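cron nightly-structures :: item 1 of 1
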Amino acid sequence: ERNAPEPPTGLYRRIMAQGGELILRAQPTTLIPGTVPFGDAARPSAALMFVPIHSRGHVVGVLSVQSYTPQAYQEPDVKILQALADQSGGTFDRIWADAALRQSEARLFQSQKLETVGKLAGGIAHEFNSILTTIIGQCEFLLGDLPAGTPLARHASEISCAAAQAATLTRQLLAYGRKQLLQPETLDLNQILAGLAGMFRSLLDDTVETRILPGAALHTVKADASQLE
């Protein structure tokens, strides 16, 4: 687990707000509060340069160079260090731009995959819908020829009901694949939800209890059933 970085304080905050700074000390005896010591943590530095690092119009850090030798740096050295920090900021810009490009490409690839799955689902649903149409039609012929209430008539009716449920799933696949024309009709929302109860339970595992609480005295709506589902 990565800890959040400490917010800049003291000297570093001043550098980020005001720009580069050169610190020269003849006889350093103490560490400068708030700075990260160079080399031996117990040995104070004599000469220190600090410059801000800019990236995308913001200060993102501080670059420091330290020496144990007094008068090791001069003001022109601060400008050189600032130029190096600017180069570092440009590198950060390119790194972040590359990362953003990779994220954009990943989102595009995911979108293309979903589009492909939608087209595949729509194509399969069209073929399956043709088969279901034949099954439902043949069941209607059987029910017309068989006496009502007989075992064969009940079996044919169950086949027809199962095919009708499969046709509902086919409509949903067609809607997902965006290959279905909208067919607005007057619908009861409670009936729509009740018809989806089985799908809810199949999508959720046994640790989730599904309960549908129908609304009382709901108005009907005019919408495409598959889109609503």
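cron nightly-structures :: done
Helices lie at 10-18, 75-145, 151-176, 189-203, 225-228.
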